[in-house]
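Input chain follows. Return structure tokens only.
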Amino acid sequence: MTNTNNRLFVLDTNVLMHDPMAMFNFQEHDVFIPMIVLEELDNGKKGLSEVARNVRQVSRYIDELVTAYDNGIEDGIPLICHPMFNNEHSPLLGRLYFQTESLNEEIPKNLSCNKADNSILAVAIALQKKYPARLVTLVSKDINLRIKAKVAQISVEDYFNDQVLEDADLLTPGFHHLPKDFWETHSKNMEAWQEDGHSFYNLTGPLVKEWQPGEFIYLTGEQAFQSIIREIHDNHAVIETVQDFSQKRHSVWGIHALNLEQNFALNLLTDPKIDFITLMGSAGTGKTLLTLAAGLSQVLDEQIYKEIIMTRVTVPVADDIGFLPGTEEEKMAPWMGALMDNLEVLTQPSSGGDWGRNATDEFLMSKIKIRSLNFMRGRTFLNRYIIVDEAQNLTPKQMKTLITRAGPGTKVICLGNISQIDTPYLTETSSGLTYVVDRFKKWEFSGHITLQHGERSRLADFASDNL
């Protein structure tokens, strides 16, 4: 380790378990893997969970590096040797080092010598003393290990490469409030036409560059106006006026919009042109109720989709859902309380519409299937209305696995609240829900809405704001 300009990053096991590509994401800097990390990876390779699959992928990457490098590994393996980097456009990468000798360094006396985390910390301390001219940094997703490293005065960082955004506040809410002079500044050379009973406008103006397809724009006051952005072309946009679901005569399965964001959400949910929808918001904003109402309407009334498929991640993530008796649906039932509560509201005679008054629970459940994410890999869903609840607990890789199950005619709706993440090592900026909102924002067949106003009850609203 003669290059003192590059930093040396010591990787904790959880970083590699979280992102199998982690060792390739430190640019020109060097990476060090302690022997205890290899041991922990070996212990975690068995099973069908996402973590086990990641561990096996890490092992394959390391094996391919060792195989591709003919020289000894004592001086480190250039990460560029991996077969995936075989062209002139490959990035500048450092070297991968393994612990090939005993690094004896006393950890603080009040820490146990038998814990793997403390052994990793001891390696980082020993490396810093062995190479004082280099900055040795421990990288870990474990908050407690990072705290112990700071106490031991060792440079330590969280693993940030998986973050989609620097701040969750940068996520678009899915709509834009227009200024009062909007028509004055954007109506020059405007084109307007009617198509299938909908009004379209082709606009140009300074605000167009801030818009994305699938977002909504609106004006309030005397010139109240709500529209969805269909296309963006250079400096002009094609917009379409939307349905007003706040009126009871336009209700969806007896449900009408109680605020602006709910109206936008219902327009997305009932729009056959939109294939992928994300709805974010705190408890009581109506995410699940609106989604179910739109799904029942399109499955039972309009028959656009064959059935509704409900799923959500089980905590712990993607592990065995247990030894509960019964079928897959019966095992998943305890996780589906929120969906079933909303279904009960929709099927009550007072609020369920004509279908809700006449349909029996048995008939409804024949059109609603509850599925576990554990068994999604390899499947293809045709003409289905898929609801993914608690999507903030999915990793980006799990989200990709799920969404790519969609076949022709399928709509996927992801619901969640990124301020309530239960999955270890996921944050608001690295959640799979944040990931898909950001990656789909420019695709014209997708839409996103952040629901901001609670409509559950005055008690729930007060508790949400004050507790």
